[in-house]
Amino acid sequence: DEHFRNSPIQTNLPKTLALISFWNNNCLNSESYAVVPYSDKLRFLPDFLQQLEMESNGKLVDLKGNLLDLPASPLIWGEPGTDAQHSFFQFLHQGAEVVPVDILVPKMPSKFEGSEYMQNHKVLVVNALAQAEALALGRKDATQPHKNFPGNRPSSIISWEQSSPYNIGSLLALYENITISSGFIWGVN
Fold first, then answer.
1. How far apart are the C-alpha atoms of 68 and 2, rounded to whole Å?
2. What is the model's pTM?
3. For residue 93, which of 102, 126, 149, 161 is within the disulfide window of CB 3.0 to 4.6 Å?
4. Residues 49-74, buried b or exposed e (16+ Cβ, 10 A)?
């Protein structure tokens, strides 16, 4: 919250992400937005963000009661990355509709229960980074066109050291401040 209140706009992360959301929603016409946490502790975050953003900014009129010229708030959806990779990432990579994605991943596991646990977490982080890279760069396969995906799909990676109560609280505050900033941009209550 202090960062949101006191940082200049050039370095203010919530305000920058709100502008990116506006760009994706209103300039690129992306009607939905996926949130993919690579952490089981955040499996309900997409549901929380639906409530936060869509209830707050999913409006038809501005503060003065005038009809909005542009839609406010995209449809938000998602699920943990370990499940998403086998359900909707093909759509994100190859679908006709371009959907912006937030990929959320802690750098370190919450518990250090031995080298196997640490190795599994490294694989999880590598999968998250690989999805972001594939969304950005795409892949051409001349021999199997059905495996092509164009790339140039908007995504953001948000990471933190470890899923502590403080860091999760900071993540929630980030999205709350993005929602506030987005509401100001769209001029909604």
1. 31
2. 0.91
3. 149
4. bbebbbebbebeeeeeeeeeeebbbb
